[in-house]
Structure formats: C-alpha cells, structure tokens
Amino acid sequence: MRAWRFAAAIAAVAAVLEAYRLVPVNNTTVALSLLLAILAISARWGLAEATAASIVAMLGFNYFFLPPVGKFTVADPQNWVALLAFLVTAVTASQLAVRAQRRAAEAEARRIESERLYELVQGMMLRGTAVGTIREFVHKVVQVFGCAGAAFYYRPGQEIVRTGPETKPVSDHDLMAAAEVDEASLDAAAGVATAPVSFGGRTLGSLALVGALPSEHIVRAIANLVAIAIERARAVEDASHAEAARQGEALKAALLDSLAHDIKTPLTSIKAAVTGLLSAPDAPAQELLSIINEEADRLNRLAAEVIEMARIEAGRLHLEKSPVRAERLVEAALADLAPALEGRPVAVEIAEGLPEAQADPELILRAVKQFVENAAKYSPAGAPISVNAKLENGKIVIGVADRGPGIEENERFRIFEKFYRGRRHRYETKGTGMGLAIAKGIVEAHGERIWVESEPGQGSVFYLSLAVNGGGR
User: Fold this and answer.
1) pTM higher than 0.90
2) Rounded to 5 degrees, what angle do the CA atoms 91, 97, 99 make?
3) Where are the alpha helices (DSSP H) in 45-186?
C-alpha cells in the first residue's frame, strides 16, 4: 500500500513535467505547478511521499527546463540557487501541510474523546452505593471508549471489579501498586493504561484500561470523574444512613418517653399506698414496706432518667436560665444526697469572689448531683470526696473528685455515652448507665463542656463548665 502511494506521487509529478514539455511555458510557471502538486501529495498521503515527489520534481525541473536542457548539470549559478530554493520550499511546504493535517486529526480526536467523556459523565449520574457506582462505571467506560476491558481497585473496601476478558494483562498486584503512585501510566505498545484515583488527598483506589486507549489526559480525566462519582455515592449513602439513624433515634426517644410515663403512673399509686402502710405499727410489715418503698424510689428515679434522656435526644430540653451561685448548687447537691454520703468525709472548696453563673438551676443541680452520686457509688466506703468550684479561662468550673479505682484510658471517651458502664463495674454496681449521659446532655444544652480526668488506681475528677452571668454569648 505504501509503495503504491510512492509510485502514484512520482507519477503525478511526471505527469506535470510531461504536460509542460508539450506546452511551452516559462520556468516560473513550471516551478509553481510542481509546488502545487507536491502540496496536494503531502495533504493526501503524507510527508514521506511528498519528499520523494519533491526530489523527483527537482531532478525533472533541472533536466527538462534548466539550461543546458537534457543534462543534470546547471550552467548558470543562479539556477542552482533557484533549484535549491525550489527543493527547500517544496519540502517545507510539505511539512507544514502534514503538520496542519496532523493537528486537524488531533483536534478531531480530542473532540471525539470530549464527546465520549461527556457521555460517560451523563452515564455516571447514578444513585446507589460506592461499589455499585464502580461496577456501573467499569461497564460504562468500556462501552463508551471502546476498550477491550477495564478494572478498578477500590481501596476502602479492598475490592477489585473487572469487565471484559481482556483485563488479564493487569493483575491484582498491578492495580494495588497503581494506587500507590502519583501519576498515570500509559503503555500504548502493550495497550495498558493505569491511573491512581484519589479525592481530596485521600486515595480511593486505581483504574486500569486495556485495548484501544484514549489519550493520557483523558485517562486522568476518567480517573477524576470516577473519584467524584464515588464520593457523591458515598455522600448520598452517608446521608441516607444519617437520616435513618435520626429517624430511629426519634422513634426510640418517643418509645422511651411513652414507656417511662407508663411506668411512672402505677409507681405513683404504689408510692402513695406504701407511704400509708408505713404508719402501721407491725414491725415485719414495716421492714417489707421499707424495701418496697426503696425499690419504688429506685424505679421512680429510673423512670425520671428515661424521661430526661428521651427529652434530651428529642431536643425537647427547655432551659430556664437565671443567675445561680456555684456554692448554692454544691450545698443543694450535698443536702439531697446526705443519706448516700453518710459516714463519708466531703471536702468543699469554693473560690473566693466567685461570680454568679448563668444556667438553669434545676438542670445543672441534677448534673452536679450525678457527679457526687457517682463519686459515692464508685469509691470505697469511707473514702473522701472533694467538691470544688473556681474561675478558669472566663468560665466557672465545678469539679467532683473521688478516690475510686479510676477509669481506663480506652474507656474515658465512652464514659458519657448512654447505657455505657465501665468494664470493671458493670456487674458490681447498680445503675442504668444513663446518669452521665443525661449530665452531658444538660451541660451541652447550655453550650458548655463536660469532661473527666482520671488515673487508674488514683481516682477520677469530673468537671463541668458554666458561663459567667452577664459574660455569656
């Protein structure tokens, strides 16, 4: 095929030379006609054919038209210059024509690739999970770009998705290695392209194409597109999970609220009956009724905790803030818990000149009581408890310290979760695991912090902060 084109190009130049031998014209007309023929050859077949035609045209022009005619010698030196200029012009024009043709072909190829990329974008507007999006993408990219096969390594799920039987040249190891590099790799000879896929500095995996390959910048564009599609699918998936979790929490809060009220109604009647029976002089009955009374109090507290937790989770905790003094909160908490603190030394330290706090007195009192109750519950009998209040970084900080066993470091971040109880005490100490979660909800509803500092074997200190009255946000 190539030899035929060379023969045709030479024949075309020969035809022009023969035509002007029969029709007498000046040499300038012959030269321009040969140049036009060479330009047509370069546009039609390429640079190599045009160069061959230029040499034949130069030799024929010299032999048939430059004196002495019929010889390859040139008598006039000016004709040598004209002959050389003709050859250079012919070759240069051929090169320019071929270059323009090549650029036009490249522009057309880019246009086609852009159209395919746009088609791929339209096909990637999918819904579903990240893995589902990857499966659809692998099939779509083969369909749109005409590749023999494609493969994708999804790093977060350690999953490899392939399509087409021709992805065997790319092994699992090659895909995993491609995810660790920064640049795409395109081997046109082997017909294999690989590219890392990342989003926001986080590696998602790698892409491989086999067979007819698009250009390198299109391979990178495809990798960027699939990264965006995966993140979009993950965002939709996370939003769906968050909405389901929110609805589940709302339902759970409603159920807890309803259950708590159903428990509290009969407890009120039991409590009233037991209180009346306690006035009877029968000693055995007195002992049993005292037990009933204590358990009724315990169930009542449980119901109150459930109601409070349901309100916090449902966002129905209404604050009625007013100025309150830290020493009043501490005194009220210790007075309410006096029976539980009997026989246990309690040290109270309130900083002098401490300003008033801006808070809901009833709710914050419940949080402080929870701190003191926990300290009494988890400390050995007779171990001291200390309560302090001070001004720190523009906040009033109330702390309750115990001499208990302390909290393991890996449990501290979970100690304020609802229903969570420390591994060491979950079977030894009575409780629901909601007290600290309620305290956390109360404090955070005020826009403040609650935290714990602890050292195993040395005890724990629970803190909460309050805004200073008149200095809040």
Assistant:
1) no
2) 100
3) 47-65, 77-123, 130-145, 172-178
